[in-house]
Amino acid sequence: MLASDRRTGTAAPGRRRAAAVGGLPPVYGRRHYLTVAVVLAVIALAGAGNTGNMYQISVFNTALTASVATVGLYFAYQLGGMFAFSQAAFMGIGAYTSAILTPEHGFVFAAGVALIVAAVLAYLLAFLLRDAKHMYFAIGAMAFAEIAVLVFRNWEVTAGPTGGGMLYGIAPPSVAGYEFATSGQIFWFLLAVLGVVLLLSVLLERSPLRRHALAVKAIPQVTESNGIDPRRSAMTLFTYGSTLGALAGVLQAHSLGTIAPEAFEVGVAINLYLMLLLGGVGSMWGGVAGAFFLTWLPEFLRPVKEYETVVYSLLLLATIVLFPNGIVGGVAWLAEKVRHRRRGGRSSGVTTHA
Amino acid sequence: MSNFVALLFSGLTLGAIYTLVSLGIVILYKATGIVNAAQFGLVGLGAYLAFWASTDLGLPLVAAYLLSIAVMALVGVGLERLAYAPLRSRPVDSVFLSTLAGGFAFVGLIVLWYDAEPRSLASPFGLETVEILGAPVPKHSLFVIVVCAIAVAALSWAFNRTRMGRQVRALAFDRDAARLQGIPVNRLSIITFALASAMAGLAGTLLGPVAALTPEMGLSPMLFAFGAAIIGGFGRFGGVVAGAVLLGLVEQFGGGYISTNWREVFPFAAMLLIIAFRPEGLFGGEARARL
Amino acid sequence: MADRFANRKRALKAGVGALLSAIVCAACGNGGGTGTAAEGDGANRPLVLGSVFALTGPQSQAPYVNGVRFAVEEINAAGGVNGQKIELKEYDDALNAQKSASAAQLAVSEGVDVVIGGPTAIQTNAAAPIYQRAGVVHLNMASSTAVAKDESFGGDRTFRVVTPMPEQIHAAAEYLIKEVKVKKVGLLGLNTDFGQNALPLYAEKFQAAGVEVIDSKLYPQDAKDLTNELLAMRGADAIVDWGFPNQFALATKTAYQNGMGDIPHLGPSAVGIVNTLGLVPVENRDSLIGMSSCDPAADTRPHVQEWAKRFQARFDAVADASAASGYDAVQLAKAAVEAAGSLDRAKIAEALTTLTLSQNTMCASTYKSDDRHELMHEAVVISYAKGEPKELARYTAAELAGTGRKQG
């Protein structure tokens, strides 16, 4: 049973059916800018409370980078309907392009070029696979991803000083002469970037593009007869999502200082998917929540590290079976129960404080 | 010339293994509508089971292989009972992801059981070779090809000639109508799960002596197996076999005559292009998978 | 109305979700300690040693971990360092860069003085700058990374404990050229930085000695078939195969099947693992030759043989080169602290640049730093015929030091 079904007994049939297919993403109003601010503020506070501790900050940084990638995945997958198993490869495209161009051209220029290159490649891939659906797209994206990793490994341009695509000594990000050298400084930089990404994404969510995308997913025949090319919006969303992935790669390269082809293999993309799934596939906030949760989980599991993979997978299966709306959905469900009880809803006269 | 022959046989061997994995996926899909992306975990499990049977239990190799396949069939039944029910009602995308996660759960179990150190599974034929047209061909390769051919023939016969096979085909065509006809849907799905799992196990035991045993050994073959299924139109067995062999040969000949370190680009590029331009497969198979 | 409802719920949801994560993070934040641990001379506190290897992930580096543990146990049993027992903290970096960075940060925040770290480039490239910035002394076990003291990699707190890869390559080439007297050689390598870096170096050395390089092929990491590569090696007097255990085993078997089972098949220290784990049947190991910093199984020094027996009894596993290196790394840390007379990290690093350790060492016979903070310059060539390690040649520091530097 899904949260949306429980909300009131009178959910419209269309919503119910749509909800059964994985949940309609919410309608976005202006209040969402407030949400962006809230999320950023919370992360900022948590981070600021820990700036003395480099370890905590480094995990935060990893989570922030992953969030950018998962938000991108949300757009490509949930709205665009495309299994973007190529997300890690695009991270790699962004990372390598930026790492190679930075020494001569500076961070901002290099990052910019990286995003443009990624966007072009993403659009081409989406165009190439425009008629492929679901699993076919997934396999095609995986094939692309494997080819990309091979390029990172073999191409002289990406080879690096010791060959094999192993790059190290990548400069930290620097904007307008200010270098974000320490982990703490990188934290604020990453937070700012995530903020920009979230704002941009909310903007996109409020645009007609999103309505088109949702319509295409739910009622493809009708939209087509209305003159909306169903594939156009999916391709645009995939391009946007993959470009965000490239941005995440840029951030990763410059905050860790080193990259290798292994960091961008298909397994990493599957991991990002798991983050989105756990966090809640229905919204970009799910991407952020899942990224943070799954970045912290292995750190928690350090004492029992051998069981990590098993815990991971079981958690995932439990999520898919029991909590299809992920963390965000679970929180929503809790919030509803609270609201329901407070209103003295359909429950018996016993009031419990949830 | 002998180079060509050597590459031909190694390509056929890889193709045979991809075929086995792919058929497992396709059969399961036809009977239950589930695309099982956990197959790679099952391949690894099959290989490690054979290793365990031959080292810890001390069984002779062929017996170890058979034991592994039998156990994998049971694992398949277990999967059907435990994991199938909650998945049945979910949309296809969700199922694909869930089974993918399930595959990693199997990998995790293997790591818990045997850790990630490389292990070696021997072949009943050791390293012996046979000379064909001037090239030394490992007997194990011939063994793999023959076993695969037998498996394909057996499955083909089962699906086209037996009553059970007809029932499965009816099931694939229209599940509800089949149920109304009195076809034992549940029993069939148990059988196909066991079969698919056993095939994955078989693929693992045959792959073991070729490469080496690592927990994630099935991931890359499964990717090619999906490719083969797609090339074959996700329908006829013949198409799947042709697709798998094609990918194996493209990889080996591409590596041999063009470039070794770019070797894997060739089959992946082939997959990408076929999905882009001929998603219904190269062999005009049945209606594309209803995805 | 439904809209506003949804919006407020969204904000609430997102806020609570983020808040939960943040609270959880803050809660575990208190356990981590502060960023800079006491750097005093610490005559009153024990040496804190960090061991950072891959405990989970695609490879298991248990031998290194056990080597380090064993050393700590034996040293502590004999009284410790400066009268204080060593405090050992172990960390897992799962063989990936992000985990390595966070493991390094964790080690730093938990007050590690000297860290002994992972043998592959992936593990150390991300971690080395972190240790350097924090002033922690870093004993690096990776042979294939950049020069220890190089600032794009480490700095004045970074030292390498194993023989650098270029020197190992020089030794291997010398062996093939002078001892085996090859005229034609085939080169194989793993298609990662490990192999890509090595093969050109080999080619250079062979060509300079007038040996013909028949072909040079790189193969992928999960290669399931190496027929093509081995066929390209036909006609060679020896094959150099610079890869990891799985692929090396596969290549050996394929070589055997293609009638090349009698020519020397020389690889890096991974060959020792091929032997120990039995990845190639015993009867097919005649061609196996490994180039390593050391190999306790073939070492004739009595104290090493006794140590290997104790190790076997303690861990129920064969003591290999990794374990020996790990063991020696701890001994180096001890020697440096004793020479420095304190736990001041700058002094420890300083001591490492000047000390010589040659007593009771299990891997090298002597550790002494050169100007690039490389502590070991020895190599041995081991044959694994019939599964019994036997030393074929030994190269000393005098012969190898400096051969790793690029000309001009």
UniProtKB/TrEMBL annotation, chain B:
Q: Check the record and name the Pfam families matching this protein.
A: BPD_transp_2 (PF02653)
This protein's name: Amino acid/amide ABC transporter membrane protein 1 (HAAT family)
Print the keywords alphabetically.
Amino-acid transport, Cell membrane, Membrane, Transmembrane, Transmembrane helix, Transport
The keyword Acetylation belongs to this UniProt entry's keyword annotation: no
| Coiled-coil stretches | none
Where's it mainly located? membrane
Q: Where in the cell is it found?
A: Cell membrane
**CC per GO annotation:** plasma membrane
Name the membrane topology term: Multi-pass membrane protein
Q: Which organism is it from?
A: Thermopolyspora flexuosa
Q: Does the keyword Magnesium apply?
A: no
Identify its protein family: Belongs to the binding-protein-dependent transport system permease family. LivHM subfamily.
